[in-house]
Amino acid sequence: MMSLAVFILLFFFYSLVSRRLEQTIVTAPIVFTVAGMLMFPALPMILGFGVNAGVLSWLAEIGLVLLLFTDASRTGLTVLRSIGTLALRLLSVGMLLTIVFGAVAARLVFPNLSNWEAGILAAVLAPTDAGLGQIIVNSPRVPMRIRQALNVEAGLNDGLCVPFLMFFIALAAAKTEGRAASLTQFIVEQLGYGVLVGGGIGLFGGWLLGLSGRRGWIAESFQQIAVVALPLLCLVVSEMVGASMFIAAFGGGLAVQIGFKEAGKHSVKFAEEWGQLFNLSVFFLFGLVTVRAWPQFSLALVLYAVLSLTVVRMLPVAIALIGTRLSLASVIFMGWFGPRGLASIVLGLVYLEQEVHLPGEATIRLALIATVLLSIFAHGLSATHGIGLYARMTASPNAAQEFPGSKN
Fold first, then answer.
1. Planar angle of CA 91, 352, 337, nearest 5 degrees
2. Which domains does the chain carry?
3. Which pTM value belongs to this model?
4. Coil, strand or helix: which one is 289?
5. Cα 114 from Cα 121, distance rounded (Å)
6. Distances, alpha carbon 241 to alpha carbons 55, 57, 193, 347, 349, in Å
7. How far does CA 121 lie from the centroid of its chain?
8. pLDDT tens digits for 53-99?
9. Is 225 helix (H, G, I), strand (E, B) or coil?
10. Distance (Å, rounded) from C-alpha 224 to C-alpha 249?
11. Which of 1-15, 182-196, 366-380, 381-395 tops mean pLDDT?
């Protein structure tokens, strides 16, 4: 109970000074991760109260399910047409190359990993974190076109990475266990059932919400609650039938718009107001896990973490942005500010929960922890100075040609 009391007090006091801290290099993930690390001496007592990896997994799963549903519910065809080519480039060529380069780097740095294990690690670390990059997308000093592209990328790439992760897990499990049917079974159960569950809940739930709204049956204060109930229902039903809750949540978010076009507005409002509680609790518990894993860190893990945040991220972004006529400063800025955080933590837990017990499981887990930890501090501490430097570089006369119609 002591850890819970500390977290609640920390959340309360951070809320009191949150606006002031937003103007500094001290981000919320840094604060809560450090607090979790400082709580490590009390870990035996915390474990005694049943707070373990299962609790972290439970919180993280709920957070990502809500996040995926929110992302999908605000992403219709009209939105996809309006986000511009930059975000589409990052979500297509950029994301695919990030997975490929991440897998290649993993094989080079960790020779003990198989090709599919390297793919798992790459897929886990491919999505960027909108929360860690919040200071970037909210800064008026960054051109709107850049902010929008990074925000849309972070909002959608976690959902897009889930099929790749599950695919690599199935291939790795099939090879390890010698079961040729494993991949087919996975596609049918995890992906197929996930689409059916999410699509069904989204369509029917959206139709009921739309009907209730048109007839004036639902109170405005309950619209948000009703919308949020749908991704939680996707989670529960998916667990019952053995489907992927993440595929179901994303599919449900896409389908709910058909019957209830305002679903995105209500789910985003909930995510902004209450999603932080889930997210920061995950970073708090992540701090505990990090200190526990600290003695197992090696130079190879640090090397991969650095490569993951630099070459593996920045080179694919540079390739994806070829032909956009963006300046070198813009390309570097977009490449560097691709932080890894909540989505990677959750996808890592998704892999561990499959219980395939691959030979490289320990390496994957430690590489994930090292990369996310480095990203929390590297991207958090560099954000303010990076924005200032980038703003000065784009203040030149050439910026008017790079960002036509922008005052930034």
1. 30
2. 55-394 (1.20.1530)
3. 0.80
4. helix
5. 11
6. 22, 19, 8, 20, 20
7. 14
8. 566 567 667 777 877 787 677 665 455 555 568 888 998 999 999 99
9. helix
10. 16
11. 366-380
